[in-house]
Amino acid sequence: MIKDIVARRYARALIASVEAKEMLDKIGEELKEISSVFKSSKELQNFFFNPAIPFTKKEIVLKEILKLYSFNPKLEKFIFLLLKNDWLKIIEVIYDQFMFYCDEYNNRVRAEITSAYELTDSEKKAIASKLSRYTGKDIVLKVAVDSRIIGGIIAKIGSLVIDGSIINYLQVIKNSLVEEV
Predict the structure, then answer these.
(1) For 79, which of 35, 90, 141, 179 is 20 to 30 Å away at the CA?
(2) Which keywords has UniProt assigned to this entry (predicted)?
C-alpha cells in the first residue's frame, strides 16, 4: 500500500520535471529499460537493496551502470534520487504508475486482448477502433493467445472486462440450465 502511494508521488514528480511533454514516452521507455535491468539481475538486487552496503559504493556502481546507456539526464537524476531515498526497490511500480500518468496525459488507455488464435493486423486495428469509440481514448493493445477460450475475445481495460469468449458463453448457458433444474 505504501509502495503504491510512494510510486504515484515519484511518477508524478518525474512527469512534472519533464518540460517537453513529447519526451514522456521516450523517458518511459528508458525507465522501463533500467527497471528491467534491476528486475533481471538478482546480483544487482542483492547489492542495491542490502542496507549493509554503504551508499557511496552503491552510487559508484549505479554510475557505472548508467554509463552503459544514454538515458535522459533528468531520468538519471531521478534514479539517483530513488537510490538516495532507498526507493530503487520499487522502480517497477514507479514505472507502471509513470506509464499510467503518461497514458492519461496522452488520452490513451491500455487494453489487454486475449484471443483463441493469433489475430491479424486488420483484426487488431478493428478491435482497437471499436474500443477507442467505446472509451473515447486511443488504445494501446497488448494481445495474448489462449486456446482455452475456444473462440471470441476477452478485452480488459483497467478494471473493465468484456468477455466475448465462447467458453464464457458456454458457462452462461450451463449456469442458466442449472438454475432451471
Answers:
(1) 141
(2) ATP synthesis, Cell membrane, CF(1), Hydrogen ion transport, Ion transport, Membrane, Transport
